[in-house]
Write a structure and sequence with these properties.
Blueprint (H helix, E strand, L loop, with lengths): L2 H6 L1 E2 L6 E2 L5 H6 L1 H32 L2 E9 L10 E5 L12 H8 L5 E5 L9 H14 L2 E4 L2 H5 L3 H10 L3 E2 L3 E7 L2 E7 L12 H11 L5 E7 L3 H6 L4 E5 L28 E5 L2 E5 L17 E9 L2
Parallel strand pairs: 3-14, 4-5, 5-6, 6-7, 9-10, 10-11, 11-13
Antiparallel strand pairs: 1-2, 4-14, 8-9, 12-13
Bound molecules: fe (ii) ion.
């Protein structure tokens, strides 16, 4: 018997006829079984590596703050308010960035600010109210802080309790009302509206702007409003600049779209990120900072815009 036959197969006792190897035998002798196990382990390691990478990417997309400075040119802005800087916090949904929001606060402290605007959906649950009060206490130390409600505060059925907590920390809560900032002879009106999820008999944006125009001579209005979808109304009112949120950037941002899905589950929504203009009236929309329920962000990091006002040339 040739030595090679011992390894390559068996012979019968009669005439040296080749008998094919028993299933698995060839692998046992040739070491291919080891290769299969190694191959499977390698495949598993690659899959685990890709899964870990995907998890880390999604965590980064939902937790690393995107601080953006946006220059907004506005016709009619009083000269003294050129360079006025507003940081907008929108749609936090009770999220905290680091213990006691240290990461969020440190990003805000890096900016030289004139005003902090919180445009609604600060909390989804009364259990988050104390943390939001602690955040408010720090914000009001940095700059005058203004707040309007979003739909989620009203959904908690405890919105007045949150507003009380915020006001105790020095936040100016604007419920279909306004305040006037003065620099010499120049004035800037900061107005704010309650979310439509609030009381049904509340003042409308049209009524509020009419009231402002009756009381103030040539007012330059910056409106804080949670809903991005109200842009047509804000423009109809002739409001030069509105700061809004609510759209969460369309959750997943895709090329050539304004996000994939709105918070009301509309596909390919509009007005979810950045500056929009209708008939000389502008609306800046923050993509927001937090998430609702099991939603998550992709290519759409938590947004912390700093809006810098400048007079249009
Ligand atoms: Fe909202």
């Amino acid at each position: 018997m040739a030595a090679g036959s011992l390894l390559s197969g068996r012979t019968d006792s009669g005439g040296g006829r080749q008998i094919p190897p028993i299933s698995g035998e060839e692998g046992f002798y040739s070491g291919k079984g080891d290769g299969t196990i190694k191959g499977r382990l390698f495949g598993f390691a690659i899959a685990a590596f890709l899964l870990l990478g995907a998890v880390l990417f999604v965590l980064d997309q939902n937790n690393r703050i995107d601080a953006e400075t946006v220059n907004v040119s506005l016709a009619g802005l009083p000269d003294s308010f050129a360079g006025f800087r507003i940081v907008q916090l929108s749609d936090l949904h009770g999220k905290t960035f680091g213990e006691n929001n240290t990461r969020l606060l440190s990003e805000i402290r890096e900016e030289k600010l004139d005003l902090i605007a919180i445009t609604g959906d600060l909390a989804d649950d009364p259990a988050q109210f104390d943390a939001m009060g602690a955040l408010a206490a720090e914000l009001t130390q940095i700059a005058p802080t203004y707040y309007v409600t979003g739909n989620h505060e009203w959904a908690t059925r405890a919105a007045p309790a949150l507003m009380e907590i915020l006001e105790k920390q020095g936040v100016h809560v604007l419920r279909n009302e306004y305040t006037v900032l003065r620099r010499g002879e120049d004035r800037l009106v900061i107005a704010g509206i309650d979310d439509p999820n609030g009381p049904k008999d509340q003042k409308t944006p049209e009524e509020l702007t009419e009231e402002i125009r009756k009381a103030e001579k040539d007012p330059f209005i910056v409106l804080l409003a949670h809903r991005n979808s109200g842009f047509d109304t804000y423009a109809d009112c002739g409001i030069p600049l509105t700061l809004a949120g609510h759209g969460h950037g369309g959750l997943i941002r895709l090329p050539f779209t304004d996000g994939l899905i709105d918070t009301d589950r509309t596909l390919f929504p509009q007005y979810t990120n950045g500056l929009y203009t209708i008939d000389g009236c502008s609306m800046f929309v923050s993509r927001g900072l937090g998430n609702v329920g099991r939603t998550f962000r992709l290519f759409n990091r938590p947004h912390l815009p700093v809006i810098v006002l400048s007079p249009a040339a």
